[in-house]
Design a protein that fits this description.
By secondary structure, the protein is mostly helical. It has 6 helices and no strands. The protein folds into 2 domains: 38 residues, no CATH class; 86 residues, Cytochrome c-like domain (Cytochrome Bc1 Complex, Chain D, domain 2, Orthogonal Bundle).
């Protein structure tokens, strides 16, 4: 359900931003409200891959669920190649201890390049 809401919110923002008809534009106050609820998409492929995986079962953008919020992850790690490689390994292997005792499920079947795109999206949230 969260995935459907998130996709619909993203679609609404994209539609509002791409409309050339002045009458179809979202009022400024409403646009600010939507922008606060949905961060700017920097890496759409990463977001799509996250939505197609089981990541949102344990993670949300702005609040802790079972695992940390993506915003918290983005604040903890710098988007360097070394850090991205380390995080790819963490996603593939799973584990616990960094964010608490509850372990993250391993994801050995995800492709490294797909994980890389997801991580790039998550780390891009730091600037939002």
């Amino acid at each position: 359900m969260k995935k459907i809401f998130f996709v619909l919110a993203i679609g609404a923002v994209c539609f509002a931003c791409n409309s050339s008809d002045e009458s179809a534009k979202v009022p400024e106050k409403a646009a600010d409200t939507v922008a606060a609820a949905v961060p700017m998409i920097v890496d759409e492929k990463g977001l799509e891959l996250i939505g197609a995986s089981d990541c949102t079962t344990c993670h949300a953008i702005d609040k802790k669920l079972i695992g940390p919020a993506y915003l918290d992850v983005s604040k903890k790690y710098e988007p360097t190649e070394e850090v991205i490689k380390m995080l790819i390994g963490k996603v593939k292997a799973g584990g616990s201890g960094v964010w608490g005792a509850i372990p993250m499920t391993p994801h050995p079947d995800l492709k490294d390049e797909d994980i890389r795109e997801m991580i790039k999206y998550i780390l891009s949230l730091k600037n939002q």
